[in-house]
Automatic annotation (TrEMBL):
This is Flagellar biosynthetic protein FliQ. GO terms for biological process: bacterial-type flagellum assembly; protein secretion. The gene is fliQ. It comes from Simplicispira metamorpha. Keywords: Bacterial flagellum, Cell membrane, Cell projection, Cilium, Flagellum, Membrane, Transmembrane, Transmembrane helix. One of its GO terms (cellular component) is plasma membrane.
Length: 89
């Protein structure tokens, strides 16, 4: 196993991590921005008002995109485990 292989595996893992995290992070960030604008306009500064909509949005995104996320992770792990003999030999 060369250092180039290790760097390639690490790069693929980080790319996959970003690709899988983006839908959830993007939606939660958008909902947080909308709630913050609402709080600034109405001058209601309640902590649960910021937390609950983000939690609901994250659950909705996980229910919609979750199967894709899981299958992508399983495919990556399967490919990585199957490539171990080739890397060692």
């Amino acid at each position: 196993m060369t250092s180039q292989m290790v760097l390639t595996i690490g790069r693929e893992a980080l790319t996959l991590l970003l690709m899988i995290a983006m839908p959830v992070l993007g939606v939660v960030m958008g909902v947080g921005l909308l709630v913050s604008i609402f709080q600034a306009v109405t001058q209601i500064h309640e902590a649960t008002l910021a937390f609950v909509p983000k939690l609901i949005a994250a659950m909705v995104v996980f229910s919609v995109v979750g199967p894709w996320m899981l299958s992508t992770l399983v495919d990556y792990i399967r490919r990585t485990i199957e490539s171990i003999p080739a890397m060692m030999g």
